[in-house]
Design brief:
Number of domains: 2
Radius of gyration: 19 Å
Number of strands: 11
CATH topology of the largest domain: Nucleoside Triphosphate Pyrophosphohydrolase
Oligomer: single chain
Shape: elongated
CATH architecture of the largest domain: Alpha-Beta Complex
Number of helices: 4
CATH superfamily of the largest domain: Nucleoside Triphosphate Pyrophosphohydrolase
Structural class: alpha+beta
Helix content: 10-25%
């Protein structure tokens, strides 16, 4: 099937779209009618949080069996009751860049590394029930023996990032033990295991 064959636009009638907040990201309230599978129209209202699209990369040194992850404080995770730094793959908002340019920029800013040979795993929606964000997920190569820049993120953006260089098997064990709980990171670690 082509994308046009799957187009459901004729089942949606938008009534209104209001911005409720635009402080850091944009929170909208949509009012629309939706034609259900049985043909009946149903009025619905939904909030969506627009974060902007993102790109994510897991740098892998396949020759030496190493990967790079980062850890940092994440307020929503802390608010949910998780009282540890979040361990995750390198990620960032596109901010007008292509996904490949974004992962190259973020790998340098967050981990101080230059990546090569990016391989797309997926363009996916991390939380489609409430968040308007599409993430492009990549595996890429890096040289764990090469000199690195400082990394650590940007203080003016509130970033305070620590870089973790471990083996893929160690990272997968951390998923099993509950030390890695970030969905995009788990997906990329599993993709890396399948492709090695």
């Amino acid at each position: 099937m082509s994308d046009q064959d799957d187009d459901i636009s004729d089942r949606i009638r938008q009534r209104d779209l209001k911005i409720l907040s635009g402080k850091y990201y944009t929170l909208r309230l949509a009012s629309f009618d939706y034609r259900r599978g049985d043909g009946q129209w149903q009025h619905q209202e939904r909030e969506s949080y627009d974060l902007g699209d993102a790109a994510v990369v897991l740098p892998c040194d396949r020759a030496r069996g190493k990967i790079l992850l980062i850890q940092q404080f994440r307020w929503p995770v802390f608010e949910s009751g998780y009282r540890k730094f979040l361990i995750e793959a390198i990620a960032g908002k596109l901010d007008g860049d292509t996904p490949i340019d974004c992962i190259a920029r973020e790998a340098m800013e967050e981990a101080g590394v230059t990546i090569a040979n990016p391989r797309l795993v997926s363009h996916c929606f991390p939380s489609p029930g409430a968040v308007k964000e599409r993430a492009s997920l990549f595996l890429a190569d890096y040289d764990s023996a090469a000199p690195r820049a400082k990394g650590g993120g940007h203080e003016h953006e509130g970033e305070d990032i620590t870089v973790l260089e471990i083996s893929l098997d160690e990272a997968l064990a951390m998923v099993e033990s509950g030390e890695i709980v970030d969905m995009k990171t788990i997906l990329l670690l599993q993709a890396a295991k399948l492709r090695t």
